[in-house]
Structure formats: C-alpha cells, structure tokens
Amino acid sequence: PALKDVFKDRFLIGGAPNRNVVTGRDPNAAAIAEKHFNTITPENDLKWQLIHPRPGQYNWGPADSFVAFGEKNEMFLVGHTLVWHSQTPRWVFQDEAGDPLTRDALLARMKDHILSVVGRYKGRIRGWDVVNEALDGNGTLRDSPWLRIIGEGSEDKRYDFIEHAFRWAHEADPDAELYYNDYGLETSKAKCDGAVAIVKHLQSKGIRIDGVGIQLHGGLTYPSVEGLEYAITSLAATGVKVMITELDIRTQARGYRGADIGRVRRQSTDDSTALSTETQKKLADKYAEIFSVLLRHEKDITRVTFWGIYDRTSWIGGSPLLFDRDYQPKEAFFAVVKTA
Ligand code: XIL
C-alpha cells in the first residue's frame, strides 16, 4: 500500500529528497517518493550555504528542480530553511575585513536573503521552516551569530532575529505557512517549553506563525511516549499546527555518518549495516509506537515527513528509514501501515 493513501484524512506524509532524487539520477528513490509521499522537503538545497553560497550569488538550479519535481507530482512543498546557525556560510556574519557585521547590516542581509528565496517560490512552496534550531537544550536561545549580533544588548532584543525572519517571510509570501523547527522537543521538556515560549512571543506581537516542527530524530529507545505526547499537547495548546518534520530512527551508535549530498561527501559504501532480526523488530516497534501516538493526536498533527527516502542515502547511515538499501519496504514499513 502507498503510505499517502494509508494516512489520507489523517495527515500528510512525506520525505526529504536529496538533489539526485529530484534531478532524475536516483529514479528508484524518486519512484518511492512519487508512490508514497504527498509532501516533500529538500534535504539540503534550500539551505543558505547551498542556495546563496557567495554574496549576491544565488544558485537556484537544484531548488528549482525540487519545486518542479514536487509540482509534477502535486505535492505540498516545504521550504527548509531560512535562518539557521548551521550550513550558513561564514561570510554572512562578517564584513569585508572579516570583522563581525553590525546588527543593522546583518538584518539587511537576512532580509535580502528571505525576500529573494521565499519570493522566488511564492505560491509554490507552501510552508517554510523560517527559523531552525534556535534553542539550546535548556530551552533558552542558543548562542549563535544570529543571536549574538542581532539579539545582543538587551533582554527585549533577544527574540528580534526570530521576529524579523517571520515578518519578512510573511512579507515575501503572505499565503505561505510559517514554522519554527527544532530537534529534541520530544526528549527535553525544557526545550519544548522554550519552543512554546517562542510561539507565544510571536503571537503576542501579532506575528504570523502557523506551526512548530518536531524534527524527531529518534533512536531504538527514544523518544518515550510520554515525552512525545508532552511535546504535541503543549505545542498544540498554543493554537499552532504540530508536524513531525525529520523523522528517522537511529539504529547504530552516534558518530557514524552516511551519505552526504549537502557537503558533497561521498556516499558510504558500508554495507555492514544489515539489521539483525532483533533490531529489525525493535525498529518496527519504535516506529509503530510513534505512529500510534501521532494517530492518537491526529487532530493536532498536520504532516509527518521522513528525513530521507531510503536507508542508503540517509544522513545518519545505518537503517533508520522505512525502505532499505535496495529500496524495499522493511518490517518497520508494514508495522507503520498497521497502525492506521
Ligand atoms: C542534514 C542533512 O540531512 C545532511 O545531508 C547535511 O549534511 C546536514 O544536514 N536538522 C536539520 C536538517 O534541520 O537540515 C539536517 O539535515 C539534519 C538535522
């Protein structure tokens, strides 16, 4: 069965194609996306480093291919991401002499970037991860050049870079949904409370925010049902939509990195990742548990997106997705289908 049919009337279901998928170089992965997904997020190609590598120089080609692929298949397109501390070139935060940019200059750069990128895909990319991973594990704003340069000085400036990013994204495409996206919201209550605070802050200023993305990079033993439910219910209580935006479940020790199109690292040829029957079962059980929780809260969940398409090209390596290295559905796939 096709996942998008299985979860029809519950939530959108999607994946994160890399460049090869949307440009026809990985037709089998494209076939999985076309069959199973009604929404996609580009794994890397809309990130600052990839789309705006040098001052004034935009590299639109790969993102255009992403949009064309999604439109051809009538998918809900998600843009990822506009303001992030990672995969953002160093020059963004520096002047020509290499010194830190002034607050006003960085805001001007952020504005230009957001208006250009969101503007180009106006009416076509329908939702944006406007700000990504702005929180640290305690739920306070993470130390980053965005915060240091734009938020420095006074307490009431702390949220400024987030406010501005959302305002400019809205200006660039008034019909687009705007999201805050982060990881670990389902494992740290403090961090989840920090996300709730961001939502409430924007709402109190009358700034549009439509949803919060729980990335949900999980493992065989986490998140707990309770942690995931806490995140969904406390975020939904603010009135925004909740979505699972980068779902995968790590099956092996941290540190291993697999394929990496974003930094053009070579694809892993490590095949020693076949799962034991026991691990297959654990993976299937964890996926089934997560989907049971999501279905229990289906009125608050609008979308569930996997971070990748199939195991061979997953950013964390191992066997974290529903389709194996040969594009075949795994035990975990059938376990997920059964929850519906
Ligand atoms: C990852 C990609 O999957 C990799 O290819 C890239 O090298 C690094 O970024 N949180 C996010 C995603 O919001 O953008 C990250 O994607 C994974 C963690």
From TrEMBL:
- Might you give the EC number(s) for this enzyme? 3.2.1.8
Catalysed reaction, written as an equation: Endohydrolysis of (1->4)-beta-D-xylosidic linkages in xylans
Which GO MF terms are attached to this record? endo-1,4-beta-xylanase activity
Instruction: Report if keyword Transport is assigned.
Output: no
Q: Which UniProt keywords apply?
A: Carbohydrate metabolism, Glycosidase, Hydrolase, Polysaccharide degradation, Signal
Q: Which GO terms describe its biological process?
A: polysaccharide catabolic process
Task: Report the active site residues.
Answer: 246
The source's domain of life comes to: Bacteria
Q: Which residues form the GH10 domain?
A: 1-339
Coiled-coil positions are none
What family name appears in the similarity comment?
Answer: Belongs to the glycosyl hydrolase 43 family.
Name-wise, this protein is Beta-xylanase
